[in-house]
Amino acid sequence: MALAQIGVTGLAVMGRNLARNFARNGFTVAVHNRSAEKMRSLIAEHGDEGDFIGSESLEDFVASLQVPRTVVVMVQAGGPTDAVIDQLTTLLEPGDIIVDAGNALYTDTMRREKDLAAKGLHFVGSGVSGGEEGALLGPSIMPGGPAESYVTLGPILEKIAAKAEDGTPCCVHIGPDGAGHFVKMVHNGIEYADMQLIGEAYDLLRTGLDLNPAEIAEIFAEWNQGDLESFLIEITAEVLRQTDARTGKALVDVIKDEAGQKGTGRWTVKSALDLGVPVTGIAEATFARAISSQVKQREAARGVLTASTGDFHINNREGFIEDVRLALYASKVVAYAQGFDQIRAASEEFGWDITLGDMAKIWRAGCIIRARFLDRITQAFERDADLPTLLVDPYFADEIAEGVGAWRRVVAQSALTGVPAPAFASSLAYYDSLRAERLPAALIQGQRDFFGAHTYKRVDVDGTFHTLWSGDRSEVEA
Ligand code: NAP
């Protein structure tokens, strides 16, 4: 019997489509699922798409693979992934590769890689983005793990990955151990920020200009022809155009305004706090989802908290629409700049040696945040691999300079009209903090020294100093 070049265990939506993608690309794929019915239905419904070898037991599944064996695990993250890895470990041999393509927390991936390396197995934690459709038609793939496993695995993954317009596969070896899952996590964090910013733009247009969803859909569709062109802007127009069959209303008006989350935004923010990287756009987006789901608090506040917005009106309709577009673009650049900062910080902390420009390259197609301007990000890092922040790249600095007035007007108008725009506002505050000549941090250092003798540094003399606050208030060198 011919053996399979690759195996997939876990055949829910993602695993099933990934297995079909391998088969459609000419690979013989071994398939397995804990409950065999999913394996049987995959072969019954799609067996004609390529060469599948279905197994009911994990033992038969492993036996159906070419040596060295490559097994893609696509099950629920957390405990289930550990359970499947433990079972596989007893069946695999040194030199075999386990790929965890689920949404694992990168620290779990680091732990698993270490444990499996001690047993002679290669463990590759790989981010996969693009949802159900991407898994089938070509996702963006972010594999970590040992570089030597990429020699075998890389060509297979590159074949099934999405291709950018220039034909480059959206898959690259990100770096050792948890690097792949870390980058996927930040990708999702940026996705949160992007979606929140789009949501705020919609809300401002809706409330500020009293437009209906269908009218706003046309604005997004038009924006999708320019610099903002992206999958998320495109689907925003689709969602806003959708009419609810039951009520005849816009679908967006009958959907509960309580945003869910599966945790990758929260992970991104937690990691950013540990690394000391201000990812304010992602944090605001994550908290905005949390506020939307605080049903009790929102109910209690409605009708009690006053708006005091007066009778402020936006008079220049076209001008405001253009302002919102520019504010959205500038805030989006901030979210990406912060996400790239976080990847760089983790790469330095964990010794991953990640090439930042490559991240923008592999996000150009297949993934949820695919966007026209990722090409510009790649170019920025090609011009200067040590760019301190994307915001100072000449291209982006100029683009934002053109829109900064609009950005300020939009943030001010959101405050004046009482339409919450936390991600717009905090992105602008981040921009202003970076460009400020002096920050009030000097005062904070003074306060810290006052109550905790935490000391401070001076602008004019080297060294560390403390003022004797409860004594004669003279300064001493600490
Ligand atoms: P899922 O709902 O997260 O997981 C269901 C799969 O896990 C089923 O095959 C299930 O087997 C298996 N499973 C659960 N517990 C198990 C255990 N203890 N032992 C063995 N198998 C177990 O599936 P999914 O939505 O396809 O996602 C798979 C992975 O991809 C997840 O880590 C997810 O976070 C990640 N991901 C999902 C998306 C997406 O758009 N859905 C996008 C990117 C990444 P049974 O059928 O036997 O229950």
Features:
478 residues; alpha/beta; 7-stranded mixed β-sheet; binds NADP nicotinamide-adenine-dinucleotide phosphate; pentose shunt; 6PGdom_BS
Outline the structure in words.
There is one protein chain. The chain is α/β, with parallel strands linked by helices and 478 residues long. It is built from 20 helices and nine strands. The protein has helices at residues 13-24, 36-46, 58-63, 79-91, 106-118, 131-137, 147-160, 179-209, 213-223, 231-241, 251-254, 264-275, 280-292, 295-301, 317-350, 356-362, 374-383, 394-417, 422-435, 441-452; strands spanning 6-9, 29-32, 52-54, 70-73, 97-100, 122-129, 140-143, 465-467, 475-477. The strands form two sheets. It has a seven-stranded mixed sheet, sandwiched between helices. A hairpin with a 7-residue loop joins strand 8 (465-467) and strand 9. Helix 1 (13-24) packs parallel to helix 6 (131-137). NADP nicotinamide-adenine-dinucleotide phosphate is lined by residues 10-15, 33-35, 38, 74-77, 80, 83-84, 102-103, 128, 131-132. Residues 180-470 form the 6-phosphogluconate dehydrogenase C-terminal domain. Pfam families: 6PGD (PF00393), NAD_binding_2 (PF03446). This is 6-phosphogluconate dehydrogenase, decarboxylating.
